[in-house]
Structures are given as C-alpha cells and as structure tokens.
C-alpha cells in the first residue's frame, strides 16, 4: 500500500505531511509521490497539495497515468514510464 513500481524498476512512494497530528510526526518531508531509482537515488517528487497520502496505482490505456488518493481527493498525473502490471488481465 502506498508504493508502486514502473517497468524500469523505479519505485513511486506516497509520503509526507503538511500538518503534524502528533509529537512523533514532522513536516520535514513535504507530501508527494517520491520517485526512487533501483539503486536508491531520488529521481524526483510529484507534489500533492493534500495530507494523508494513502495509495497510488498506474492505469490508463498505456499504463502511464498515475492515480493518487489523498485525504478526500483522487488525483491523477501522467508519467513517462508505464507502471508494472500488478495483476494480469482477465481473458
């Protein structure tokens, strides 16, 4: 939950908060989708203007649409590399 891979092996991670809800939470990591390479390098961040990022999934006809749930909102954005197929299509 909250992480997905693209076909190049990059990991997309939903993380960060804008408003801490307790003494152990911090705003050091702004909310967004963080893209990390297979060797652990941060490749970029897709900012999300909402707290409580919960999940993400690749979709669309070409697998290059990233759907993101956060708070009460469903976001979508296009990415350059298709996501890995989590489940095969039914035939």
Could you explain how this protein is built, in words?
The chain is an all-beta fold and 91 residues long. It has one domain (3-78). The protein is 0% helix and 42% strand. The strands form two sheets. It has a four-stranded antiparallel beta sheet, with no helix packed on it. Strands 5-6-7 form a three-stranded antiparallel beta sheet, with no helix packed on it. The radius of gyration is 14 Å and the shape is globular. The model has no long low-confidence stretch (mean pLDDT 91).
List key phrases describing it.
91 residues, mainly beta, four-stranded antiparallel β-sheet, three-stranded antiparallel β-sheet
What's this entry about, in short?
The protein is an all-beta fold and 91 residues long.
Strand residue percentage: 35-45%
What is the alpha-carbon Rg in Å? 14 Å
Note the gap between the termini: 26 Å
Give the helix/strand class: mainly beta
Query: What is the domain tally?
Result: 1
Helical proportion, percent range: under 10%
Oligomeric state of the chains in view: single chain
How is the biggest beta sheet arranged? 4 strands, antiparallel
The parts where pLDDT drops under 50 for at least 5 residues are: none
Strands across the major sheet, in which order? 1-2-3-4
Mean pLDDT: 91
């Amino acid at each position: 939950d909250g992480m997905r891979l693209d076909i190049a092996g990059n990991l997309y991670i939903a993380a960060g908060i804008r408003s801490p809800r307790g003494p152990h939470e911090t705003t050091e990591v702004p909310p967004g989708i963080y893209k990390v390479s297979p060797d652990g390098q941060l490749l970029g961040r897709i900012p999300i203007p909402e707290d409580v990022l919960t999940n993400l999934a690749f979709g669309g006809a070409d697998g290059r649409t990233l759907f993101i749930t956060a708070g009460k909102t469903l976001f979508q954005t296009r990415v350059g590399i298709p996501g890995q197929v989590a489940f095969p299509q039914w035939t």
